[in-house]
## 1
Amino acid sequence: MAPTDNQNPTARGQAGHPRNPDWWRQAAVYQIYPRSFADGDGDGIGDFKGVLTKIDYLAALGVDAVWFSPFYPSALVDGGYDVDDYRDIDPLIGTLEEFDQIISQLHSHGIKVIIDIVANHSSDRHRWFHDALAAGAGSAERARYLFRDGLGQDGEEPPNDWQSLFGGPAWTRVTEPDGTPGQWYLHLFTTQQPDWNWANPEVRQDFLTTLRFWGDRGVDGFRVDVAMCLAKDLSEPYPTWADLASGMALVGAGTSPYADGQHPLFDRDELSEIYAQWRDVFDAYSPPLFAVAEAWVAPHRRARYASPKSLGQAFNFDLLTAPWDAAAFREIIGANVDLATQAGSTSTWVLSNHDVVRHASRYAQSGTTGLNYGAGAAPLSVDATARDRGLARAQAATALMLALPGSSYIYQGEELGLPEVSGILADQAQDPWARIENGVEVAGRDGCRVPLPWTQTGPYFGFSANASWLPQPDWFGAYSAAVESADASSTLSFYRAALALRREFQTDEQIEWLELGPEAVAFRRRNGWTCVTNFGTEPLALPAGRIVLRTDGAADRPTIPAATTAWIVP
Ligand code: BGC
C-alpha cells in the first residue's frame, strides 16, 4: 500500500481534523499500556479485544490521540520493550486485523493513533539476534549488534566495566556455534535487550521499513523510546563507567566531562542524521507522520529531537520530576514554552506514565518532594489524609497542565485518580527494575502498571473474566470507571469536563503570566482563558471572570483553597 491520507470521516475540533498537519501541536494524548488496559479473552493480559470494547470510553473521555505502549511479540522481560518482531503483534495481545479495527474505530471518533518504536535494542529473540549468534564473530550478522571480544586470556572478562541502566553489567557473553564461550554483546538495559548497531546501514534501513509498515497501516505517529541512546561511540580506549556515569545526560543532571553531543552513549550528534532519515519517511505521508522523542537530555539539547527536521516533538519530564512548589512549576513552564518555541515545536507535559510513581501518590507525600521511586510503598489505602492530599494536588496539577499550550500526555488510570499500588514485591513483581538493594526490597514500576478497575465488584474489577497478570488491591473497585462515571464529583467526571472545556477554549500557543503572589501559578491564554493554581495553604483570591472549572468542585466562590486549580473565562 502506498502512503495515503488517513481516512478520517470525523472532523472534530482543531486537533481532530483529519487533514490538519498540526493536529499534534496541542493534542491531549492518552497512553494505553495494553497489557493492563482491558482483557477481552480472559487470560489475565490486556489485549486488543479489550481495547475494542473501550472505544466509546476513550471517545467520551475526550482525548485527541491514543499512544499504545509496545504490543509487539515479546517475552515481556521489560514489559514489551523487548521486541521480537517490529512488524507484528504479540498473539497474547491480538492480531494485525484487530489493530486495523482499532485504528479505524478511533479514527471514526477523530482520535489519532500513536505507537511506540523501540529502536535502541531488540529482544534476544529477534530473528537477527539469532542469526548473529549462529553466524559467529566477525560476520555481517554480528555487525547489526554491538559484539566485542572479551579481555583476559580467554576473553572471559567483559570488554569494559560498563553497567546496564537496570543494574548489573552492560555486557553479556554468548556461546559460540561450536559450543565454546565467545564474544560479548552490549545492552544498556536487560541482558535480553541487545543494543542495535546504528552505524550499520542495514539496521537503519530496516527501521525505515518498519516506520513505513505502520504508516501504511494508518498509524498517525510514533513515540520513540530512549531516543537519545541509539548512536554510540565504542572506540577504544574505553572510558570507565565512573567517567560515563558522571556525564549521564539521562537525568539532565551532573557535569559532563564530554562536550555536547560527544558522550559515548547518550545524546550523540549523529542522531540527527538518523532522525533526518526518519523525517523523510514521515513527510512522504499526508499529513506527515508525527513523532515524539523520549529523550532524557539537558534542556538545551532537546531541540535536536523536537525540531521539524528531526522527530518534531520531545518529551520534557520536568513537571514529572518537580516538587509540589509554585516557583518550580513557574520556572519549568516558562523555560519549556520558550524552548519548544525556539525548536519550532510545542511543549509536552507529563505528570504520569508507565515508568514512574503515579502523581496522585507522589503528591501525597507531606513535603514538596518530587519524583520518588520508593513512594509506591506508602499504604495510601489506610492513610486517608495523605490520599486526599495527593488526589487534590493531582487534580490541581492536571487542570494546570491541561490549560498550558502544547500537548498533554495522560497515562491510563490517572483519569480515575488511581494511586500507585504498593506492596508488589519479590514473588509477584514483573518489572526487571524491582530489586533487592542492600538487603531491602525496592519496588519497581509495577505499582503504576496494575490492570485498571472497570467495575466496582466482579472478577478482577471488570478488567478480565479470569485473571490479572499483576495483583489488584481490594480497594480498587472504589476507583473503577463504573463508579466514577456515575459520580459527578469523581476524578473521571473532572477529566471529562476539563478535556471538553480544553477543546472549547484551545487557542494559540502563547501564555501571559499573572502575578497573584508567590504561592500561585497563574497564566492567561490569548483568548482570555485563565488558569490559577493555589500551591499555598491559605485561600487565594481569583481574578474576575466566569469560573468554568474548579478542581475542589465547590460552588462559585471568589477564592480557591489550598491545592486547587480554577479556570476562568471572560
Ligand atoms: C521505557 C521503559 C523501558 C526502557 C527500555 C524506557 O524509556 O519507557 O519502560 O524499560 O525504555 O526500553
## 2
Amino acid sequence: MYDKSNVFAKILRGEIPCKKICENEYGVSFHDISPCASQHALVIPRGEYVNFYEFLARASAAEQAGFWTVVKETADALGIRDDFNTWASAGDAPFVKQSVPHFHLHLVAGERLKDPTYF
Ligand code: 5GP
C-alpha cells in the first residue's frame, strides 16, 4: 500500500524542496540529494505508485507516456542523452534495492559510480 509520508510524496506536495530539472502534468525530475556520479537525477510520476511494477500495471497510457517524456527531457536538459544508465556510467551491478516507496527512475551518467557499493 502506498505510504503518503514517503519523501517523494513530500516533494510532490511542496513540503520539502528539491532541485527540479523538469516536469509535466504526469511527472517530475530533480537532482538526487546524494549523487553517486557527477550526474544523478531522479524521475518520478505524480501518481501514487510504490514501485516499477505497480506503475506499469496501474498507470494510464497517458501517465506512462508523460513519465517517459520527462525522462527524455531530463536527459536532454542534463546533456546525457547518449550515456545515461549505460554499463559504463551506471556500473556493472544491476541489482538495486529500492529505499523510497514511490516509483522512481535513476538517471546516472558521467562516470562509473563513485561508490561501487552503492547498490
Ligand atoms: P532508491 O534507493 O529508492 O532506489 O533511491 C532513492 C534515492 O532518493 C536515493 O538515491 C536518495 O539519495 C534519494 N533521496 C532520498 N531522499 C531525498 C530527498 O529528500 N531529496 C532528493 N532530491 N533525493 C532524495
